[in-house]
């Protein structure tokens, strides 16, 4: 705009304009002036052209891409990209942002070299800007932070590789509430300068509009505070333009008609409309900069339809001169906000839960599709472990690798994927992609483990003589290698791999068919083991689901679970040999089984170690919890209830559905008749089996060496013959006086304080006392009083709350019969089928309960929580001629044999990239002040972590690895905040000394490194 005299040009245009309209001059070509930049003393309306492209929702990701299944919805992202690129090439002033790399990659790989060159020029000139830049716009309530990091890294490295660019802005416009982890970790730690979104609670938004606090500086982590803050803009309404400014070809907004020879000439009216909408928004916004998100879902399929109108608006509005309109991007907008040198209010905590109107709390999706949520979490940890093993033996250029699973998991983090808010056929598509990725990753895992046991690296997979198998359906006691071996007298081998950086002792459970069994470690020592008979419930569940999921009838029928304690080194494996025992051998212990009678006051106690759980045989339920070591004793109950889902068809009669939780009534689930408890006791684990009702079966386990209770639940099929949708909860009740307060994690990371019927940021008007107090849980939930803390950890994303003092509830399953009118247009009624015979979905999962003295709960929540996320990985092999140990390496650890990571540090990524560089991410698991021993600066010795390797270069990167950390810090904008800026001292690990190579991590810090590594020697050699 330099040298261009604005004022005179505008006057000239107005004169011409008046001339044309008065005298009816011939219509002719109008060269619209779209070059306008920011004008300092005017209200600047930043027009940000965008298309919100869900990577799956009503259609699958591929159907959305190529325009398939258009009877469901006319949406074709290929059209969007083709036509947008052409529109940008047509006028160098036009701009566009693109967000979802899963779509962009699909498009990019099919373009000609000539067009690719042009697109690179568009990117370099800033006309096309990548925003957010992950594979998808991830959900913020139900993914684990490790998945969020992985999917963002994948997209960012693609952009870096193809375009040399680093996205600057977070654009989470559609997710249904916003997490603290999004702000600081997937925002500031990526190097983003700002974050924008639309959906916050309607009461919160009203207040923020009133006091002009829609734009804030968000400090998501209390541990990292201002060192990880981000400028955050909340849209005044939604992520579409103001009413009357949408221009997809079928939209009803009046286009500008500026041809004087045609009827309906409307330039003046439309300019007035534009100015009025801008002034209205300016009323609720600080500084003289406004953003209009010009687009919405799957728009710009015929891009010129939008750009033509924006060209005209920019031209005529600027001629009018009351406000200034310009083509912009969120980056330009952010820079303008920054340049204004304003002070901004500080926001802490998060934006959960989200309600878009009274009685419409979007807290149902915290649990929707619980089996899929469990599958995503299980595969997330598998992907982490598989990449470690892939790296240990060298990534294969040609053979199977872990990329397919990575891609599938990245898509699954989308805000209509793991959230459970997609249509059924789309959920099936995500699951299919994950299972295909799993199949490839399993090949990597078994061949890597085989290589390591044969002590051969970089060998072709075909040359390995060791054949290992895995059992992904172990949770339904289906494991052909462990069931069928032994029958021929042969023994079998279990390789137990530990993906964590510290050594572990943990109980392994596998199904076997014989009771004469011996378990030996690799030194030939017999290990204490225990057999637990498989119940009829387990067998029925197993047989049905093997038929449903594998399409075959399970062959063998195992008779027992075999349980024993495995010791495993960090990032390594141990080997156990299971063989048939002679009758005379001292061998496995068969569990003592009892079905206690419900006489009055008959109390059943389980637990061979410090923890004892006491059950009333009469009532068939838990009554008391005690720990003999720390002297915690309290009454405790664990029960099931259900909410009946509200019925309705629209937003006025709001139903409970895939997104929205709207309970109608609450019912406690009581045992139907007197079903006795079944108790199994032994040297490894005590179990108590409860048939809660016809469709809930629960096993509670107390392992000898641990101090928590593990609850395995099987829920479903939820009956709906009564035409009532149901949402099933487990409640854990104690006498703790928790004063309305509880804590839930943010994507598995920082715990955030919640107070019942209360919001930090506004005076909450309570109209849904149950749904409005639900929060997303990925790691756990806890509550405390002056003496004790009650913690519950989970194995997948669920919704949870504390609606009564001393009580925690988790929503574990939902089956609903009404659509909740938020667009999905399908009821959340999942089924599982054997051929055409379908019944309601059954969900199998775990939660874990512990009660600690006050101040001692964090150790378990954090360190054991990481063990829940990363379970031991098992692989099985047949042993020929009892010679396994003479021909195989029995135990392995990638780290120095004297070394173990501290229990407050997790290796969250260890992966060989295509370039051969190793990506290492280390995470401190504790917050500041959370634990007296573990909330401290800790360090990791890279030389011991990479033992036997020479690190030629170690570079600290930002979280997604697309720029050096130092470079990112240098560019970081320093925002001014309102009020007192005092905060508790923030600590961060110091720079890494290139000689010592010791990484320091402060509480809640995650540090990312690119490491160039040369092998000094082969593992195990
Ligand atoms: Zn969306």
From TrEMBL:
Reaction(s) catalysed by this chain's protein: Hydrolysis of terminal, non-reducing alpha-D-mannose residues in alpha-D-mannosides
Molecular function terms, GO-annotated: alpha-mannosidase activity; carbohydrate binding; metal ion binding
Keywords in alphabetical order: Disulfide bond, Glycoprotein, Glycosidase, Hydrolase, Metal-binding, Signal, Zinc
EC number(s) given by UniProt: 3.2.1.-
Keyword DNA repair: no
Gene3D superfamilies associated with the record: 2.60.40.1360, Glycoside hydrolase 38, N terminal domain, Glycoside hydrolase family 38, central domain, Golgi alpha-mannosidase II, Golgi alpha-mannosidase II, domain 4
Pfam families reported in the protein's UniProt record: Alpha-mann_mid (PF09261), Glyco_hydro38C2 (PF17677), Glyco_hydro_38C (PF07748), Glyco_hydro_38N (PF01074), Laman-like_dom (PF21260)
Cofactor binding comment, as recorded: Binds 1 zinc ion per subunit.
Residue intervals of the Glycoside hydrolase family 38 central domain: 360-434
Signal sequence, renumbered to the chain: 1-27
Keyword Transmembrane helix: no
Cofactor: Zn(2+)
Enzyme type, top EC level: hydrolase
Record protein name field: Alpha-mannosidase
Organism: Daucus carota subsp. sativus (Carrot)
Lineage: Eukaryota, Viridiplantae, Streptophyta, Embryophyta, Tracheophyta
